[in-house]
Specification:
Layout lengths: L9 E12 L2 E12 L3 E6 L5 H8 L7 E6 L2 E2 L5 H9 L1 E5 L10 H6 L17 H14 L15 H13 L5 E5 L7 H18 L2 E6 L2 H7 L2 E6 L2 E7 L5 H11 L3 H11 L10
Parallel strand pairs: 3-8, 3-9, 6-7, 7-8
Antiparallel strand pairs: 1-2, 1-4, 4-5, 9-10
Helix pairs in contact: 4-5, 5-6, 8-9
The structure holds adenosine-5'-triphosphate.
Adenosine-5'-triphosphate binds next to strand 2 and helix 1.
Pfam families: ABC_tran
Keywords: ATP-binding, Cell membrane, Membrane, Nucleotide-binding, Translocase, Transport
Organism: Agreia pratensis
């Protein structure tokens, strides 16, 4: 739900964004706005442009055409320190968690504060008491305080993604980007991780832009769904009252071939939505 106190505070704006990689058009005239506190899921088949869109918001890609504003800054015009400053306000979590397997859970979380360190980096000693207390607090928030001194690679996938969320929280981000954060997890862990992202976002007024394949998870945990197909926005709608059948229908209407429709059905019909989420 959008924060009721700041209903018109737009934190992400993409205006007619096109991105070409050689002959491939990954994004084609994409325009979306995301309000502060909104939880928006990007839904789409493999190759529809979800990751490319997220990478533009974080300044990791530059658009071929169009403009992107994040927290009031024109991302495409930024480099060096101003870009780093903006990116420090944007947390990013990934499908493969991107933890350092041989480090402890606590050290992995602390790496979220790396950009703020001055002087030599000497493992745990470098971070100082305030950072360590903050990291332990974030681990407590994601339910892993008792695992702080365990090696990261001894945790389950769902636990590792929760560590990655705690690491992102070390940045005190205003925006959390998540690129298929549950694609490597079983259905139960996927649901738990999405629930945690939603709870934390609501607690902190975080804005979330998250790519997913699974329509059932999107309907359960997002405020709004933006559907991409071949780099174009084909659906942009609040989830309240939306059913899986309606999402399917919208995708079905834009499928141009039978095999494309079958691929959409195969992806979107995975899992089931509890009645309470409809
Ligand atoms: N760096 C790149 N160089 C060339 N082509 C790219 C690059 N990044 C993305 N693409 C292409 O752009 C299109 C969109 O890719 P993108 O990764 O954004 O899709 P996606 O929806 O995130 O897919 P998936 O769900 O499989 O992660 C694809 O055709 C992809 O091959």
């Amino acid at each position: 739900m959008t924060n009721p106190q700041t209903p018109t505070d737009t934190v992400i704006t993409l205006s007619s964004v096109t991105k070409r990689f050689g002959a491939t058009t990954a994004l084609n005239g994409v325009s979306i706005e995301v309000e502060r506190g909104e939880i928006v899921v990007l839904l789409g088949l493999s190759g529809s442009g979800k990751s490319t869109l997220l990478r533009h918001v974080d300044g990791l890609e530059q658009p071929t055409d169009g403009s992107i504003k994040v927290l009031g800054e024109n991302v495409a015009g930024l480099s060096g320190r101003p870009l780093r400053t903006l990116r420090s306000k944007v947390g990013f979590i990934f499908q493969q968690f991107e933890l350092v397997p041989s480090l402890s859970v606590l050290e992995n979380v602390l790496t979220g504060a790396l950009a703020t360190l001055r002087g030599p980096r000497l493992g745990l000693w470098s971070y100082g008491r305030a950072n360590k207390l903050a990291a332990l607090g974030h681990l407590d928030r994601v339910g892993l305080l008792d695992r702080a001194y365990q090696r990261a690679d001894t945790l389950s996938g769902g636990q590792q993604q929760r560590v990655a969320i705690a690491r992102a929280l070390m940045q005190n981000p205003e925006i959390l980007l998540a690129d298929e954060p549950v694609a490597s997890l079983d259905p139960e862990s996927s649901d738990q991780v999405m629930a945690l992202i939603r709870e934390i976002a609501l607690d902190r007024g975080l804005t979330v832009l998250c790519s997913l394949h699974q329509v059932d998870l999107a309907l359960s945990w997002a405020d709004r769904i933006v559907g991409l197909r071949h780099g174009e926005v084909v659906l942009d709608t609040p989830t309240v009252g939306l059913t899986k059948a309606q999402v399917m229908e919208i995708y079905g209407r834009v499928a141009t071939t039978t095999s494309e429709l079958q691929a959409i059905e195969a992806e979107l019909l995975v899992g089931s939505i509890p009645d309470s989420a409809r």
